[in-house]
Design goal:
Length: about 230
């Protein structure tokens, strides 16, 4: 069953959605962090792809029904709040919290994996840092001085031991494959990479066998056991 949920702090609220795992028991939980301005409720349409696993996703600050202004530290703080809140629910198996991020959300997911115990990490269109992406597109602009939100996943990668599955689009012009490769080469734990040559930034998640490869990575059976 999908239900609307809210997390509030300091007078500001975040709007999210929670799909509780069936059957009702301690079950794995997947936390999803979407791309920039992504309508994250669409992700919940895939809930049947991972049977027996609960799902949680929230609108970033300033989007949908969520209050506030988005920013690197704000998104990081919210990710910790979401993890801590749902990790304390009696129906959640805290040993099997999965974190998934897409595009901008991969930076949030990597940060969370560096701060909290995460069983598995799934990244779609990951990057080394927003700063690096910007510098590659605008090489004559002093990005180091201008960029306020670097989302530097590369600096965190070596100390993260969580196994990661990364999907890379060979035709991704927004996050070129080289930036994902740089991040993965620095990863401190087990790393699985799926390069889909013809996929671009917006079609990568619709690629053939996308969800099957996620199920294989998570070792999900028909009952949702990991």
């Amino acid at each position: 069953m999908q239900r609307n949920v809210w997390i509030s702090q300091n007078g500001q609220s975040l709007q999210g959605w929670y799909v509780k795992a069936k059957p009702a028991r301690q079950a794995p939980l997947l936390l999803y962090f979407g791309g920039n301005a992504e309508e994250v409720t669409g992700f919940l349409s895939y809930k049947d792809e991972l049977p027996g696993i609960g799902m949680v996703t929230f609108n970033y600050r300033g989007y949908g029904g969520s209050d506030g202004q988005p920013g690197e530290q704000a998104l990081f703080d919210d990710a910790l709040r979401i993890y801590d809140h749902f990790g304390n629910l009696p129906e959640v198996d805290t040993r099997q919290i999965i974190v998934m991020g897409r595009s901008l959300g991969t930076g949030v997911a990597v940060y969370l994996a560096a701060q909290r115990p995460v069983h598995r990490l799934i990244l779609t269109s990951p990057y080394d840092s927003i700063q690096s992406l910007a510098q590659a597109q605008y090489p004559y602009v002093p990005i180091n001085w201008l960029l306020k939100h670097p989302f530097d996943s590369l600096v965190r990668a070596p100390r993260i031991k969580t196994p990661v599955l990364a999907f890379i689009g060979g035709n991704d012009r927004i996050i070129p494959a080289s930036h994902a490769e740089t991040l993965l080469q620095a990863w401190g734990g087990e790393m699985h990479k799926v390069l889909i040559p013809q996929a671009d930034h917006n079609t990568l998640g619709n690629s053939q066998n996308y969800w099957q490869q996620i199920r294989d990575f998570l070792k999900v059976d028909n009952n949702g056991s990991l």
